[in-house]
Amino acid sequence: MVVTITNLQATGPLTIPLASGRAVRLGPGERSPALPDADVIGNAKVDKLRSQRLIDVAAVSDASQDSAAGNAHGGETGKTHATVDERVMRHI
Q1: How many domains does the chain have?
Q2: What confidence category does residue 61 fall into, taking pLDDT thresholds of 50, 70 and 90?
Q3: pLDDT (tens digit, 9 = 90+) per residue, 1-14?
Q4: Alpha carbon of 36 to those of 11, 12, 39, 52: distances in Å?
Q5: How far apart are CA 54 and CA 52, in angstroms?
Q6: 72 or 25, which is more confident?
Q7: Host domain of residue 66
Q8: Residue 86: which residues within 8 A CB-CB, separation 6 or more?
Q9: H/E run at residue 26
Q10: Other CB atoms within 10 A of residue 52 CB
Q11: This prediction's pTM
């Protein structure tokens, strides 16, 4: 599955470390390009940023994965999002 991360801060950039060893730097309100969910699920640093309400992690629906992957700057492309928590709950 593919996810995106959105910086919920009103000011200042955020650097988000991923499980793959890479990091994503997002400005205020900016959305990341499509990322593998393995980079965020179980990532303690991402979980901490989510609990502080600094970021939102959303799963990209299967129908829009191609358009999300092609949208490197994270602009609106009509994606349908479900939070990762909702996706995890469906598998429990």
Answers
A1: 1
A2: confident
A3: 899 999 999 999 99
A4: 27, 25, 6, 22
A5: 5
A6: 25
A7: 2-90
A8: 59
A9: strand 23-26
A10: 9
A11: 0.67
